[in-house]
Amino acid sequence: MPALVLLGAQWGDEGKGKATDLLGGSVDYVVRYQGGNNAGHTVVVGDQKYALHLLPSGILTPECTPVIGNGVVVDPSVLFSELNGLNERGVDTSKLLISGNAHIITPYNVTVDKVTERFLGKRKIGTTGRGIGPTYADKINRVGIRIQDLYDESILTQKVEAALDVKNQLLTKLYNRRAIEAGQVVEELLTYADRLKPYVADTVLILNQALEQDKVVLFEGGQGTLLDIDHGTYPFVTSSNPTAGGACTGAGVGPTKISRVIGILKAYTTRVGSGPFPTELFDEDGDALRRIGGERGVTTGRDRRCGWFDAVIARYATRVNGLTDFFLTKLDVLTGWEEIPVCVAYEIDGKRVEELPYSQTDFHHAKPVYETLPGWSEDITKAKTFADLPKNAQAYVKALEDMSGAPISAIGVGPGRDETIEINSFI
Ligand code: GDP
Ligand code: IMO
Ligand code: MG
Asked: Is residue 415 within 6 Å of ligand 1 at its C-beta?
């Protein structure tokens, strides 16, 4: 029963889409277990580039069944436009399964996300504005709308009315916006019901049966460890659990079933949105990483903040996820630097600290302590084995592995499926 979790080890955008797609050919199910269309996963197949937001990256592999688990939040209008876009490009999406327990991002959740951010002003989180936080808030407050509610109009109406009771007070009295009419929301949601129906399934049962039959199931995380609501840089986080435990709750599979947890790790660091980022660069090196690495958000088009590799974060990701492997991505982007600094520890108020501080205040004060490694200038994009890499690139990878606490089992040297060095097989 091989169940693998593949997740972001930093602040998202590590290359999870590419890694999932690469493994897609050897797995039977690819499952999203949290988040929603705040994710932006780029997959390059041959000369075709796909940007996926809500759909699991396994959708591009015909043999694989893509699953949207109960822990995901689904905006049906986004789902349909993503499905339409793929269908127009000849991708068969008919195998998709969606949990009836997944919560729906309603139009009012999107409105609340945007007005809340505006209200926060310079204290804003820098969310993607897709309604993620307010939808999870409704779920926890037990006023959320689930996919299955679309099939009982009376329950749907009662639930939408209950959710809007409080929200309309906030919208009109605090945020100075117009009230949202429950009837209109219900009408819009009901237009999605028929088209969604063929995809809706008891995904918990299906996935557990698949594991009993020795099928291979891959859980694809959105976002990343440092954006986790419990383990990330709260409050500058997303509202779900991208960390490994999230795969269990977000898909209904017990922890004893998980055999491998793979952390996707960029060879440097990026972040989108607000919040502390100790190795962030504000100089030409930061600009160069952004330019060479193409570091622009797939979902919002925002420039990503860029910085050197941070081993403290990688060690933390190993710990909170129980990582068994790393997939190191974008090593090719570092080609051409004479020397590459790597953050090995922090200095906080004059003291050297080796591990991520649990206190937000300390983390805001963390200054990176760098070790500098020699760079390389040879093109590495054609490398197929570890031995093909220049000596200094090999040493860089080995140093990162030693600092990060788990073996680096694959290395990305370009965005394409085949631009990957496989060291240990994942399945
Ligand atoms: P995700 O959100 O983790 O799936 O990552 P994104 O798709 O948002 O961002 C990663 C970007 O890096 C995408 O444009 C990928 O095509 C690209 N990418 C992934 N792996 C590599 C790699 O090894 N080298 C290079 N140059 N690009 C890569
Ligand atoms: P993938 O899956 C990078 C960030 C947002 C913001 C914070 C909260 O492509 O790695 P939200 O809309 O989730 O409430 O925003 O989280 N964020 C991401 N950053 N990659 C992502 O997804 C992200 N999804 C959300 O920028 O700082
Ligand atoms: Mg992304």
From this structure: yes
**Domains along the chain?**
3-93+202-422 (3.90.170.10), 103-196 (1.10.300.10)
Burial (Cβ within 10 Å: 0-12, 13-18, ≥19) of residue 81: middle
Ligand 2 close to Cβ of residue 39 (< 6 A): yes
State in Å: Cα 329 to ligand 1 middle: 7
| Encoded tokens for 203 | 């995904």
Is 41 catalytic? The answer is yes
pLDDT digits (tens, 9 = 90+) for 188-240: 999 999 999 999 999 999 999 999 999 999 999 999 999 999 999 999 999 99
Cα→Cα distances 291→53, 150, 183, 316, 377, Å:
23, 45, 48, 28, 17
Q: Which residue type, as a one-letter code, is found at position 50? A: Y
Ligand 1 atom index nearest CA of 49: 16
Global pTM reads: 0.98
d(CA 378, CA 91): 37
Phi and psi dihedrals of 124, rounded to 5?
-65, 160
In this model, does residue 417 exceed pLDDT 80?
yes
Q: How far is the CA of 163 from the centre of ligand 1 (A)?
A: 38
- What residues does 416 pair with on adjacent strands? 44
**Distance, C-alpha 386 to centroid of its chain:** 27
Instruction: Please report how the helices 311-321 and 391-404 are oriented relative to each other, as an axis angle in degrees rounded to 10.
Output: 50
Helix (H) or strand (E) segment spanning residue 325: strand 325-329
Backbone angles phi, psi at 347, to 5 degrees: -110, 120
- State the DSSP string of 172-201: IIIS--PPPPHHHHHHHHHHHHHHHGGGEE
